[in-house]
Structure formats: C-alpha cells, structure tokens
Amino acid sequence: MNPQVNTTTKPVFTIANSDLQLGDNALAIASALVGKTVRYLNAGPSTVRQDGCRTFKVEKVDKVFTSNKNRKRCVTALVRDVDDAGEAKYRTLQLAGISAIV
What we know:
Layout: H1 26-33, E1 37-41, E2 53-66, E3 73-81, E4 87-94, E5 98-101
Antiparallel strand pairs: 1-2, 1-5, 2-3, 3-4
C-alpha cells in the first residue's frame, strides 16, 4: 500500500529573513517587528529615495490586517524613518514588501 501524499496544503511564505510566515497570528507578527529595523520596498514611488528601498525602525505595531483592496497582509506601525532623519511617522507596510528584519 502506498502512503497518501497531501496535495492540498498551501505554500508557506516567510517574511524576509525570518521564520515568520504570512499566515502567522497578529501577535506573533507584531512581536517580531517591534524594536527591529526593517528594509522595505515601496509598492509605489518614494519621495525620499529614488530606488524605493526604505529603512524603518519599528517602534509600535497598531494593527495587523489583510487589505480589502489587494488581499495582502499588512501592518500599521509607528516607525522611525531612517531615510528621513529618523522622523517618527505612521506607515502601512505590506508584509511581502519587507526584505530584511534586523
């Protein structure tokens, strides 16, 4: 008898260079980001950097959610914008846009 192979499992997508997965619960995602510096590729044009690759220091995560517009997993966070003289600002970041967490 041959063993059954489960072909219905969804692929696992990790976030940047971490063990986090897009499907992880909100608390796990928020906890992994707070106090960390992230490299982020803007979905649209950036007024700060021409290449669109931004660096943020995450101070607080207010919300982890799935966008109604594009169904992507996102966070709303208070960040220090390293590329903009460390200015504190709120940003909505798509988790798939995070390329590194340090």
